[in-house]
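Hey team,

Filing this mostly as a record. A colleague (T.K.) asked me to run one chain through the structure pipeline before their review meeting, and I want the input and output archived in the tracker in case anyone asks later how it was produced. No errors, nothing strange. Just documentation.

Input sequence:
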Amino acid sequence: MANERFPLSEKYLDFMAYDASAEFLEGTTFAGKTTVAIPKFMFKVAESPKKLHIISGLDLGTIEKNIINKDYGLIDIFGDFKDGGLIEYNASGKGIHSLPHILFHTSNGVKVIYIVGYDNKARWKKVLGGQYGCIFIDEFNIADMDFVREIFMRCDYRLCTLNPDDPNLECYTQFVNKARPIEKYKNDAPSELLKMLNQPQTDDWTWWYFDFDDNLSLTEEKKKSIIESVPKGTKLYKNKILGLRGKATGVIFDIKKEIIINRLQAKQLKFQLFSVGCDTSYSRKTHDKLTLEGVGITNDNKCVLLKERGFNNKNRDNPFAPSDAVKWILQFMEEFKDEWGFARTAFIDSADSGTIMEARKMKNKIHCIYNFEPSWKKTKNITRIQLEQSWQSTLDFLILDECTDYLQESDVYSWDENNQPEDKNDHHRQGCQYAWLPYKKKIGNWETIKQIIKDADKDE
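Output structure:
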């Protein structure tokens, strides 16, 4: 690739030179991820002692458009074999290789690169019998995970490019979040994404984040044009411009920095009451959480999220049960009392009668000072969102910066395709709502809000 045609930033040069068994490239649109991944992959293929390799994408047409025939694509960089280049593309197969493939003529021999669409299970199953040197999976976030799991263990080197998507997808939880940035770039990405790399690292799996500034061929005028063409607050802006993970049609909450406070600021507030909410989940198949949220309501009617904790049963060898949850609730309330103040009642998800019953059994057994009540749920979810948005706009809802899980959920909690709040990414939010719902009349300008939001007083 001629440097004057596509100049490489320092980060991209570091990426080209770095050696790892698996690499994941994530980031904004127009960052050049696929463009720079193509030569890196081909260099790895040329170095590999194995003959067979794979390029995979959604389907054959998409691979041709995004990798083979595009500007700075395979043929553009390495040249067509019939014109003296190194790439011989056989879209319908040829000779002993019936699958679509590329013959890559290198000084280390002719390499065969199968072109495999992960949309066609019957076709990709045909490549599963062999061992491969390198695989390049484009748009990894939409790849068939059955294909990925099978092929990852059959390759020496894996290179994956991906676009931001629903953070709960298996591509993240089972693969991408097991990678880490190299030391030089360990803080060179949005903190929201870095926090999501929370699975134990697998071998030397490496994660790279690229944005507009890493694409030196992108002019300031073009960059400005791209950014201004996408409406702020939409899913597209979050994914493409900010390079953050998220799903659905638009993010519900735009958390302003003014509502995030530190512990010192929170300690200077005067509180009139405290409350704890608990949203429950015991599923071993999902990333749903059991969450605990502690709030305080100030003398000037501000609601402040002060403390949080979350537990998840997925992948636990010994899954927790309601009896465990009750111990955690009591421990949380004791800690909250020592740190902030006495919250007499924990409002537990009213749909979970089992946990409520266990909590009350524990109260009778040890005669503890806390009460355990079902959450107030008559106020509709959409109305709770309206209340929170109103309070945030008037700075009547504040969040302690230590409540990172709540803030992370806020970054991805979205409207679904039917313009309804999605049923995910909301467990910390639900727990927080359970804590403030019984006291909502004490938050912000309640009388004004009640006149506008007709459903606001449903719990009364």
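Quick notes for T.K.: DSSP finds 17 helices and 17 strands in the chain. The mean pLDDT is 90.
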